[in-house]
Amino acid sequence: MKVSKDDQEGWLTVCFKYLLFGFNFLFWVGGAAVLGVGVWTLVEKSDYLSLLASSTFAASAYILVVAGSLVVATGYLGCCAVIREHRSCLSLYFFCLLLIFTIELVAGVLAYVYYQRVSEELKQHLNLTMAENYAQPGKEDITLAVDRLQQDGGCISKLERFLADHLLVIGAVGIGVASLQICGMVFTSCLYRRIKMETF
After folding, report:
1. Which of 10, 49, 82, 144 lies at a C-alpha separation of 20 to 30 Å from 121?
2. d(Cα 119, Cα 116) in Å, to the nearest integer?
3. 116-137, pLDDT tens digit by residue?
4. Contact 28, 75 (CB under 8 A)
5. What is the 8-class DSSP label of residue 51?
6. Domain range spanning residue 10?
7. How do residues 156-175 score in pLDDT, each as one tens digit?
8. Where do the coiled-coil regions begin and end (predicted)?
């Protein structure tokens, strides 16, 4: 029994659809996790904001919430585009993936370039804040934040040690996520092309 070219093309389209749907599910779960970390940071770690040098650090939690929401919405758009096989939705989905990938790339480069400077600035400001404002009248929020930081076991030094010890793993995960997004863009392009071919 010989398989026709049309059957092969149809099977390939179905294969791309399932691969892209699976990718979207993983992408959506990842976005939900980032959103959850951002919300958790805002709710659970808001006491520490009074210790920080600028609002830039507080803004990072809001950036996580926005980025997570964008990824969740993009994942949903991708699922709808795959199920309905709309080329315009697939195009929009591709450009959303490309935008998210570009933002992540820029954020990763900036984090790598400025990590040491931000870390040193944070340490200096924390030492200054604790020396000048701890247990001072009218500075109860800072006193409470320092006390909580100490109860948590010196979170900053633990975080720095964790990052230093696991830098290779963190980099590998970042490369894995980027590779997954590139695969998603490739699958989207292939499905877009297959749907376009089948409509003519």
Report:
1. 144
2. 5
3. 676 676 677 777 776 777 777 8
4. yes
5. G
6. 1-84
7. 565 556 556 655 665 666 67
8. none
